[in-house]
Hints:
By secondary structure, this protein is α/β, with parallel strands linked by helices. The chain has a single domain (18-278), classed as Rossmann fold (3-Layer(aba) Sandwich), CATH 3.40.50.1820. It has ten helices and eight strands. Helix 6 (147-158) links the parallel strand 5 (140-145) and strand 6.
Amino acid sequence: MKFARIIPALLLLYSCHKKTELREDKLYSRHLQQQETLTIVNTPIPSDKSTLNLLFLNDGQMMEVLRVKEIVDSLFQLGRIQPLLVVGIHNNNREQEFGVADSRDYLNRGTRAKFYEGFIEGELYPYVKKKAGVRKFHSVAIAGFSLGGLSAFDMAWDNGDKIDKVGVFSGSFWWRDKAVEDTGYSDEKNRIMYAKLKSSRKRPKLQYWFYAGGAEENGDRDKDGVIDVVDDTQDIVNMLIEKKSVQKSDLVFVVDPNGHHDWPWWSAKLPDFLIWAFGK
């Protein structure tokens, strides 16, 4: 009888010390007409898979630099986040695959953004659910950095029936359909994502987490002493609130006065985002 009691105790001890795993996978995309590389990080999978959360991460090729595995493992072992599956999508053509799905920028970038969105929404999401053996994740989030942040926001906005939360690190909300130097340029009309929000009748039930660094750039189009990455993000936040698309309690905007436009700075903020999105 004593031996019978020891075995469950040992199994419990072992399960408590299971580590977060990292592996790579491949998936052919009909939308993109190419093989996509995925870097996958997961905490120990719970027996009750309805408690498992999913994060799609743009620029999956940078997950080592971002220290995703180490950060996720540390937060999980400390009991700060729920069970989590992170799927990082490698991007080798960022200027064409990222952007706003239904509009190219003034330099004809973002030509493959609608196909990239179709890949994640129509191919990758069903694939991940099948591989994970779940009918529905507890919550689904998407996040990205710079152009990848713009892409993540646009994808969340367009797919609010599948995505619950979005994280935007230094989002490229300056993305525009006319050069600033062109006669008639207007922040109101020519910033693509801002104009899309302004004209949209959608009210997706999303939660938003934004980050921008105060030392990311020197650009200041309106000469108000606030750099563009902060101004552009603040305008998106204000538009969401103005259109009553979100409760203030479901929106976070963090500005680090010393933050730079670089991966180490985004890595340093990643734990805050993960705790916000998947915290216990």
